[in-house]
Amino acid sequence: MLRDLVYRLYERRLVADLRASRLPRHVGVILDGNRRYARERGLSTIADGHRVGAEKIHELLDWCHELGIAYITLWMLSTDNLQRDEDEVGDLCEIIAETISRIAHDERNDERGVRITALGALDGLPDALRKALKDAEETTAGRSALHVQVAVGYGGRQEITDAFRGLLEERHAHGDDLATVIAELTPGEISRHLYTTGTPDPDLIIRTSGEIRLSGFLMWQSAHSEFYFCDPYWPEFRKTDFLRALRDFASRQRRFGR
What we know:
Radius of gyration: 19 Å
Order of helices and strands: HEHHEHHEHEHHHEEH
Structural class: alpha/beta
Shape: globular
């Protein structure tokens, strides 16, 4: 179709322009809109919307590989999502497990050096999903070209709470009293206990579906991130949309609070 040809030519032009631009090292993506996509497109079940969205993740990793982006964090399941209808949550957890397993065991991703790690309150997840995440981490542990963090059972407030708890437990184990902990507390010390410890903070955070908020995604880490909000539901997110987000990022002057 002519429209498809025009889009391909436009994508090639965007890619060519971006290769000479400043690209983000780490991109976070809030994969929003699967449920609304399913309802508005008349799909049989909400789970069908999640399945279409899951397929889009494989495309996104292709785009990141093509452009040499080193880190990507995908918010796939929030702590709030776990409070939804039991059947929907069960379907979604199954879809996430299947998706992560496919990424981990795809030979192309092995060649590309795709590594997977999970972040979130993982103890509260179904056994099958926790097993799939652990297997993906072990399978991809030796890779390093593209680090994919999957945020599952993740909430920003919970992460910060857990970070403080871990910090206090560590200092208590060392015999430090509370006054000493308070006096010596630094942002760097808190950062060491976040789920994402050892990973650079995101340069760019993208949210799909037209919602203009972070909803607690990487609250601590996004202090100096650039944000990009776009209208397409996640299953409809195209390479063109991704490239536009990167172009927008490249056009901004980052000041890091200075």
